[in-house]
Amino acid sequence: MIEKNYQPADIEARMSVVWEDSLAFKAGRPDRRDAVPFTIVIPPPNVTGSLHMGHALNNTLQDILCRFERMRGRDVLWQPGTDHAGIATQMVVERQLMERQQPGRREMGREKFLERVWQWKAESGDTIINQLKRLGASCDWSRERFTMDEGLSKAVIKVFVELHRDGLIYKDKRLVNWDTKLLTAISDLEVQQTEVKGHLWYLRYPIEGKTFSPEDPTTFIVVATTRPETMLGDTGVAVHPEDERYQKLVGKNVILPLVGRKVKIVADDYSDPEKGSGAVKVTPAHDFNDFEVGNRHGLRRISVLDKEGCLDLLDNEDYLKGLPEGASQFAEEFNKVDRFAARKRIVERLESFGFVERIEPHTHMVPHGDRSNSVIEPYLTDQWYVDAKTLAKPAMAAVRSGETSFVPKNWEKTYFEWMENIQPWCISRQLWWGHQIPAWYGPDGKVFVAETEEEAVSHALGYYVEQEVITVEQGREMALDRNKREGFITRDEDVLDTWFSSALWPFSTLGWPEDAPEVQRYYPTNALVTGFDIIFFWVARMMMMGLHFMKEVPFSTIYIHALVRDEKGAKMSKSKGNVIDPLNLIDEYGADALRFTLAAMAAQGRDIKLATSRVEGYRNFATKLWNASRFAEMNHCAVPEGFEPAKAKETLNRWIAHESAHTTREVTEAIEAYRFNDAAGAIYRFVWNVYCDWYVELAKPVLLGPDSPAKDETRAMVAWARDEILKLLHPFMPFITEELWEVTAKRDGLLALAPWPLKPSGPTPEQLAMLAAAAGPTDPLISPAFVMPIFDHADFTDPKAEAEIGWVIDLVTQIRSVRAEMNIPPATLTALVLAGASAETRERAPRWTDVIKRMARLSDISFADRAPDGAVQLLVRGEVAALPLKGVIDVAAERTRLDKEIAKADADIKRAESKLANEKFVANAAEEVVEEEREKREAALARKAKLLEALERLKQAS
Fold first, then answer.
1. Which of 20, 18, 68, 61 minimizes the C-alpha distance to 42?
2. Are residues 66 and 121 in the same domain?
3. Residue 92 CB contacts under 8 Å (≥ 6 apart), including other chains
């Protein structure tokens, strides 16, 4: 028995237990042994994370695909897991230690600290997994993985060692994003560009051989900079090769103010003649662009900052080399001064010597660490790198050939732009939490990369015995006694970038590098659902690693979803106070309502503007379905054994079978094409408009009437159509549909495992050949006899039933629209004249007279050769239906009202168009504000069109 009120929380808790106890989501179920696999890997959320709206969207869309394919008979593996999130997790635990006034990381030592992190992970690290379960994610939770699991760690070590052996991993001194607070390199994704109000300093650099005078421009060249403190590391000044002002100076030197170092003037396209003075200082060790300019011109790299962002001058051989006598005094004075304090003092010193031409206010973007909020330094340091350029070539070729395709396709352009300009990938991090780099150093710094310490020791001892650094006997002793090699060979303390281990996710989670049968069955995966912001950081790297180690692309389709913004279109952020917590929405409206909202708004390539009112609206949609199911149950609607809807005799019942088949095709095709919003829209229209508003309403006279064969058939059909709805809606709203299926369908088995409404047919010859080739004769998990679910869309249709019921619906709908436009009170009944009606209309109208009169608020329905004078004429499926409204409405008053409404719409259109025509407004206003004005204009135009249509109709009645 269906409860009177729809209570999402009760249903969700109960259904979660049912699914878990029945192992509904387990991959490799015995009943799916011969089924075609369908695999998706979850983008592993950070173990420190909690569910945010991006997670909710991403996982809802993945779940729709998984539930859809599971119902289509596939052996679905939705692989869940979490990422160890190096920096984030280490910060959480360090902050915890500080808050509890316990010893810090350094005092604890590496081993004890890591024990503490693992303890935290065991206690608090599953928060987001439990939240994903609340959302209804149908992952195979028995296969949950963690990027620091033993098996995944083994994969990481193997990949590192093999790439190093192949020359694709190496150590190099390059610039990295350096966090001076966390004291580690970080990835570009962990850098936030923040707009800062600062200054632009125009500095005079004296030209070598000329006596510097601030009043004589021929004695100096002016460079503009936002960072005067890094000038101490300048090794060049760049001017554009075609800038006539400086052509005679190219190749000459300037003297670096305060320091006295000779700095060469070079010609390089990087300098923009239109910006600043047209000349820029080149500091290769402190700017990513300058690093490349320095490489092109062979300029020295002089790092003048230490890891904590203080000037490092006194014992800095690179800095002191080539300086004139007396420069060491300046080094002593400024050594270990914080970079921002140094900036102020250096500018003061430059001003005192006349080296500052002018200072201008300057707003610019400054990189900050997303966790430390510290200003990020481009820092020259030794790090481990992957030769990403080499690995990117096959990854680009795979997308160009169509082995892997992006949806929407326009994201391929972004992918190629990033990949074609790819730089070496810095994979080392100065942290303790993570996969420690499998590299050991000998006494002379020689590196030994190996999968285990024993293997590294063996290589090292063999090498140093051969080099006669140690004797054979010493080597044997060290090999046997760990204490005797202490200090002789030491492991690299750094860990790997989190993206390195997550790049292996599609195959490491399946058991690779072991010869696991799951690797053969579930790799490559089918689809990846992810956000555009990690195309480069994760998607591209999975492509590289998958192709290199598995010799196959990791997924055939990459679906890129957009952002979830607030209802005005602004990006959600804590600082704006506009963050919407999905868990709060689930608590208030239910997971099904949130899921359906996100799916219904997930148009390809368009950001989602999420308003709480939309979620509330879809909760009402769930309530509508609930109440319709209760109505069916209360009227004893049930599907009898052996019922065949195609054999229904009643026109209304054949019509709902026709509409159901049409909607099933529509929903199926939309999900297959990743048009989630179209699929949701189709099922919404079918449930609310077709089934509830029309079919159930039109069926009520039969259901409430005397017993008859028509009533029996209608009861069966009401229940059958409801069950089809539950199947189609299940991928979007799994909780309510599973509950109603259990209570009303009265069948064995779960809805989650019920067959999708479109019946499968056999595979084509081409697909059979493909499947046989994929399976192989001895494959333990894939039988060559399995059948791929390929669906025959030529399902039940009845054009005659659609024509009749469609005519009734269109007629009632248009009459209701006119009544609303003309402000006709509900109590006022109007007449209807069917003018020049066809034989079909004359034959069907009497069957539906009572229904049409009741639903359209009519007093009478009659036939005539032509429409009466003064009647509003409606064109219904090619025929005229007339409403005589003389004496029913005050035509003059109604025309005045419509004229006022049209004038108001015109004013709204003019106001919006005026703003949108203002170039300054469009350029300077926030994106969401501009979009809001566009929406206002479109809404006003649509409103005006309807009003004009109503006015035109009114003229017929006058």
1. 61
2. yes
3. 48, 120
Please report which residue ranges of 254-362 form alpha helices under DSSP H.
288-297, 317-320, 327-334, 339-352
- Domain of 629, CATH number, reads 1.10.730.10
Q: Tell me the pLDDT tens digit for each residue of 392-450.
A: 999 999 999 999 999 999 999 999 999 999 999 999 999 999 999 999 999 999 999 99
* In the block, residue with structure tokens 């030529």: 794
CB atoms within 10 A of CB 220: 22
348-372 in b/e form (b: 16+ CB < 10 A) is ebbeeeebbbeeeeeeeeebbbebb
Q: Tell me: the pLDDT tens digits for 457-480?
A: 999 999 999 998 888 988 888 888
Smallest Cα–Cα separation from 160: which of 150, 171, 149?
171
- Do 288 and 159 meet the contact criterion of CB atoms below 8 Å apart? no
Question: Which residue has tokens 């195309």?
Answer: 535
The alpha helices in 776-890, defined as continuous H runs, are 799-821, 839-856
Judge whether 702 and 850 are in contact, CB under 8 Å. no
Q: Beta 236-239 vs 279-282: how paired, if at all?
A: antiparallel
CA distance linking residue 816 with residue 872, whole number of Å? 13
The whole domain housing 556 covers 8-161+497-589
Q: Which of 354, 369, 384 is the last residue of a domain?
A: 369
Tokens coding 482: 């760990």
337 contacts 345 by C-beta, under 8 angstroms: yes
- Six token digits for residue 894: 């109604």
**What is the count of structural domains for the chain?**
6
Residues 206 and 317 in one domain: yes
Query: How far apart, in Å, are the Cα atoms of 394 and each of 153, 159, 384, 520, 545?
Result: 25, 17, 22, 22, 10
Q: Is 574 annotated as a binding residue?
A: yes
In a shared domain, residues 746 and 839 = no
